[in-house]
Amino acid sequence: MSNRLYTREALVAQRERWKTAGEHVVLTNGCYDILHPGHVRLLESARSLGDRLILALNTDSVQRLKGPARPFFNEKARAALASSLEAVDAVVFFDEETPRELIAAVLPDVLVKGADWNHFVAGREEVEAAGGRVVTIPLEPGYSSTAIAQEVQLRAGASRPKTNIRTAPNGIDYSS
């Protein structure tokens, strides 16, 4: 796994080093289970708002929110993909329903979410109370993990059972 993957504790320490060096830190979060151009553009836009970008990824417990067929790729695979992106300086997992506790520990200078979350940005109060700002970035039209998943199922034929990519019907284990 990449050296960009941090534990929460190691990330808090790294954030302090970046702060001491005068670097502005941006944080965004999400599941990122089907990485698509909309995700990449959001991450690039977020990175342009500071010197360092932290991506907080939901652990596989995101099933509680998205349903039993999600995420499509496990947390290890999603972290490997995210870590390979030039815009991303650090990846960290959070297991809670929202990343509020993580955000309160890291206290980024800028907290970013896609504009579809204008109604609720977890950690907003903590970041603003510390003098930071919250930015929502417009979504890239035509890209949505849910819509992509639905399109794949339609193209595969409605009669086929829904499968999780990690447990493919051909028996190949995509979990690593």
Task: Give a written overview of the molecule.
- The chain has one domain (5-156): Rossmann fold (3-Layer(aba) Sandwich), CATH 3.40.50.
- 35% of the residues lie in helices and 17% in strands.
- The chain is built from seven helices and six strands; from the N terminus they run E-H-E-H-E-H-H-E-H-E-H-E-H.
- A six-stranded parallel beta sheet has the order 1-4-3-2-5-6, with helices on both faces.
- The longest helix is centred in the N-terminal third of the chain and has 13 residues, at 8-20.
- The protein is globular and about 55 Å long.
Keywords:
single chain; alpha/beta; six-stranded parallel sheet
Shape: globular
Going by CATH, what is the homologous superfamily? HUPs
Query: What class, by secondary structure content?
Result: alpha/beta
Order of helices and strands: EHEHEHHEHEHEH
**How helical, in percent, are the residues?**
25-40%
- How much of the sequence is in beta strands? 15-25%
Major β-sheet profile: 6 strands, parallel
The span between the termini is 11 Å
- Radius of gyration from the alpha-carbon trace, in angstroms: 17 Å
Concise account of the structure shown:
Helix content is 35%, strand content 17%. The chain has 7 helices and 6 strands, in the order βαβαβααβαβαβα.
What order do the helices and strands come in, and which of them pair?
Elements: E1 5-6, H1 8-20, E2 25-30, H2 37-47, E3 52-58, H3 63-66, H4 75-83, E4 90-94, H5 100-106, E5 110-114, H6 124-129, E6 133-137, H7 145-156
Parallel strand pairs: 1-4, 2-3, 2-5, 3-4, 5-6
